[in-house]
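Feature request disguised as a bug: please show the residue count (319) next to UDP-glucose 4-epimerase in the output. Example input:
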Amino acid sequence: MTWMVTGGAGYIGSHVVRAFGQVGIPAVVLDDLSSGHREFVPEEVPFVQGSILDTDLVTAALREHGVTGVVHLAGFKYAGVSVQRPLHTYEQNVTGTAHLLEAMQSAGVTRMVFSSSAAVYGTPDVDLVTEDTATAPESPYGESKLIGEWLLRDQARATELHHTSLRYFNVVGSGTPELADTSPHNLFPLVLDALAEGRTPRINGDDYATPDGTCVRDYVHVADLATSHVAAARALSEGRELQRVYNLGSGDGVSVREIMTAMAQGTGIAFEPEVAPRRPGDPDRIVASGEAAARDLDWVMRHTLTEMVTSAWQARQAR
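Example output, currently without the count:
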């Protein structure tokens, strides 16, 4: 039993690869290194450099390594930028997923765990998002993830594909110091880079309808997330039926102001964040329930907010 991790040289993907290794399941990585890092892939893990858009390459890699399932994390993941680059986003996330499914069908690979996103919900009008909450994506990124779920659903109707999609929001922290989040758009690296460079971090808006006026979101540790990806892969390998989608949510969000306080404590750098105007389209609160995933996918919030911050800071310093 070997699993391919597309995007396995990226921040989340590299943690998933290590989680497979911890339970003795062989993995192979496919990544075009557009945002991933070759050094994030352990030396003993086979690495194929290429794009999911290259159907022939992916088909050959699946066959060569005897792959039995795919954890699909490769894609363009910047929601804000996707508004300016919709065609690129759809090509990478929709066309790419279609090509990957085609390669899997050609190679006889019938299991997939898909990295989706809480962005499929848009701005929900409920305090706690569940898998039954209506989807209403507000960016090409969110739309592309929802279409990816539809592609899996429809391919499963036509073939023997067994699949599940995992929806999550803000992934933070580090499971090991050599694996840092290097995204130029995510809150944690933006704040940590500012502190490391002697700049003052910024809060975008403090007049939201929340207890402290700043946005409330789900923040989950990347190692916890990786554990549930592997649990989903094992369940599919064992023939267990899973829900079509799962939320990997905290059930209890954290505000941006609380993140800033934890950053000061975790780094030992005292600061008072600057307050900038709101960003268009930022909802007051988005928090998801993780009850179904806790039941089926070993989903547990094993790390505190402090541990999320300190592990991310250690990884930032090790860069």
